[in-house]
């Protein structure tokens, strides 16, 4: 079978990146664009009410339900590894936090030899994406598809934590997205009037009225069709049947740091020593494809408090839950508008770091893990993550079968540097919770627990016990200079050794950004799509 149509570009994955790429390419009516999504439409209420992440993560309707290998650095624990299974991708189930990272992150990419990726180069892309509540300025834009608003709920307990951060020398921040995110403040979120604002809502749906853009959902890409070192199309599976589709100009993978690797590996593009034992014919021996996995590991410290309200009490009170629902229905405010984390703190785990290297996600609630009830005692979660881990992991397929999940080995806390930062982050957490602003609420350490000694080995082991992913996998198909054999992509996101193939998603990051990764992925999508258009224009006039 074939999908009928004469397509210039086939975009794989209607997630954060794919929606933006498809929108941008289809702005030119000469471009015929096909967008493929393995998940379905976002026609479920919990994709739109912000607190719906509690129901979407861990639900096979919305989540691919991946798991990691047992991790030595996490004392043998395996983690759930959520990824969005719907148009909008992970932007339909994520924390909604709008965070660019630090200017030095992108300047670091440029220093690797990636011209055009420094802070001054990417800032215009961020601005062009945005419809920012703070208005147009040198730092922010308006009129774009990426709606950004302040949170619509506040908690006195979080205000007290922000004051405690000031007492230990961390300044207040009204905007984490200036290029230097050091400070304490409330996160800005991808919402519009109390509803989640995913990439599908902001970029895909407004473009679907264009006759030159076609969306197909519930189709899984099995492999690329490669002829004479050029990608000519794709082999898909829909309802158990194989379907072919052709691409005249390019196939663009936007399936994410896991999905894009799976497709390449099934296509014979990847490390030959991984793929040959699976019986896969090698189209290109790409030793770096599936390596360089980076993620932010957070240590979820929990503190019991007293004399102040947290969401735990509201959750276990039917009356308060009813009021919470009414507040959302009539005002689009209150706890149902909450992102998973509201208050952020960016600081240094020790004075040896030149810039903020840890990020706190602070929540007025506590629970054992997503999908389980909140605790019955009042408590807050004070989770610190290492913004620039030095550990590197892998993603690989273990079977040529389309239905086989990937093998994910993040390799958390594998380096002495990461173990030291984890230990120091717990020390900073304890210092924060001892500040005078919090004394009246008698914070009591529940996790990792006051019995954990204040030495590097004990604290690093405790970090392994309470550490969990913050859902930021990147870097598995990184861009880099031609001299680097482990960088499959050039600075224009083209696959080296295969024509007609580009990757535009979080997998292209050479190093992880210093904060939540969804907004950087959106920037990559816009910049990458501009590169596709520029290259096409040059070829037309050549």
From TrEMBL:
PROSITE patterns: PROKAR_LIPOPROTEIN. FAD binds at residues 86, 221. The keyword Transmembrane helix does not apply. The keyword Transferase does not apply. Residues 389-525 form the Glucose-methanol-choline oxidoreductase C-terminal domain. Gene3D superfamilies: FAD/NAD(P)-binding domain, Glucose Oxidase, domain 3. Its cofactor is FAD. It holds the Pfam family GMC_oxred_C. GO terms for molecular function: flavin adenine dinucleotide binding; oxidoreductase activity, acting on CH-OH group of donors. Keywords: FAD, Flavoprotein. InterPro entries: FAD/NAD-bd_sf, GMC_OxRdtase, GMC_OxRdtase_N, GMC_OxRtase_C. Residues 7-297 form the Glucose-methanol-choline oxidoreductase N-terminal domain. Belongs to the GMC oxidoreductase family. PANTHER family: CHOLINE DEHYDROGENASE, MITOCHONDRIAL, GLUCOSE-METHANOL-CHOLINE GMC OXIDOREDUCTASE. This is Choline dehydrogenase. The lineage of its organism: Bacteria, Pseudomonadati, Pseudomonadota, Alphaproteobacteria, Hyphomicrobiales.
